[in-house]
Specification:
Blueprint: H1 16-38, H2 40-64, H3 75-85, H4 93-108, H5 121-132, H6 134-138, H7 152-155, H8 171-176, H9 188-200, H10 207-223, H11 230-239, H12 242-247, H13 260-280, H14 289-295, H15 298-304
Helix pairs in contact: 1-2, 1-3, 1-9, 2-3, 2-4, 3-4, 3-5, 4-5, 10-13, 13-14
Length: 321
């Protein structure tokens, strides 16, 4: 007998927990690369973030729904790991714990738990850090600097010690991820390896990411015509977290439209907002807020663009006057 799944996986052939295990497996290459480049701090932050997300989800669910047995879907572990991959390795423990608490309690559980949240919990937690701990979010580190130093775990790294991204790097650095940036977003090879895992397990929906990257690639030319360089473009694509957003955040089942056309339009709009913020606004917000803003439009897409149910031709009932 097939077990009933929770939303948004109610029609899935495999259990929700199994699906999230494969998502964790897809994130594993990027996480290993982050630990390799930045050391034990990434592993400690990952354990704390995932543990906080899972613990809050569990406690709130047991408190609000004591009559129901808690269903472990592992989505909280995915959110916790994604959060750590999107921050500098020198981020403090307190910042990660507060962001995890915010994402789990206010973004996810306040709206009813998994499948009912409007915003992506990991991305909303990252936005929380960008607003409340902006100095720590700018304090990026160079790879292999202080692999075993734990001094920044409690207080974070001072912004004046931040390392600026390289202006001229080799293709090997671009592919391998040996660039200054956030912990797990700088390696094209490792992120694409995770993408292949999602594709092989049929857990990746192409519409929103295709629309997103079409706008980023072809829109980069007119937006940056005065300083157009292809090596600069690839460094921008690698260090800004755009690949991770396109692969994971635009493949979320809860916060993007159900209809393929809606997902494609969602990706186009998110890509355009990203370019506008990078060019004319705050570039620190360009990875985060475009997707969150489009998350809030998902109910509108789902209202006007919905998959047709069986032979139903219209979602609106005709009333005889």
């Amino acid at each position: 007998m097939k077990r009933k799944q929770l939303a948004p996986h109610i029609h899935a052939d495999q259990p929700a927990a199994e699906r999230y295990i494969y998502v964790l497996l897809a994130l594993l290459p990027a996480w290993i690369g982050a630990v390799f480049y930045y050391g034990i701090r990434v592993a400690i932050l990952s354990i704390l973030s995932m543990g906080c997300f899972f613990g809050v989800d569990f406690l709130v669910s047991r408190r609000m729904y004591p009559e129901q047995s808690y269903y472990v879907d592992l989505s909280s572990l995915v959110s916790g790991l994604l959060l750590v991959l999107m921050v500098p390795a020198s981020t403090s423990v307190w910042a990660i714990l507060l962001a995890s608490l915010f994402g789990s309690l206010l973004v996810k559980q306040a709206f009813g738990g998994v499948g009912t949240n409007i915003l992506n919990p990991a991305l909303a937690s990252r936005a929380f850090l960008e607003v409340t701990f902006p100095i720590q979010m700018k304090a990026v580190e160079a790879p292999f600097s202080g692999l075993w130093h734990l001094s920044s775990l409690l207080n974070g790294k001072p912004a004046e010690q931040a390392v600026s991204a390289e202006q001229s790097v080799s293709w090997m650095h671009i592919l391998s991820g040996r660039l200054c940036g956030m912990a797990g977003v700088t390696s094209i090879v490792l992120l694409l390896l995770g993408l292949l895992i999602l594709i092989e397990r049929r857990l990746f929906r192409f519409e929103a990411p295709v629309g997103y990257f079409l706008v980023l690639v072809f829109g980069y030319i007119p937006f940056y015509w005065d300083s157009l360089r292809f090596d600069t473009f690839f460094v921008w694509l690698c260090t800004g977290g755009l690949l991770l957003v396109g692969i994971c955040m635009l493949n979320d089942y809860s916060t993007i439209p159900m209809d393929p056309l809606g997902r494609f339009m969602f990706g186009l709009a998110a890509g355009l907002l990203t370019l506008v913020l990078y060019r004319f606004g705050n570039s620190s917000y360009a990875m985060i807020f475009p997707v969150l803003m489009m998350n809030m439009t998902t109910p509108i897409f789902d209202h006007y663009l919905r998959p047709r149910a069986f032979s139903k031709t219209s979602w609106y009932r005709e009333v005889d006057e």
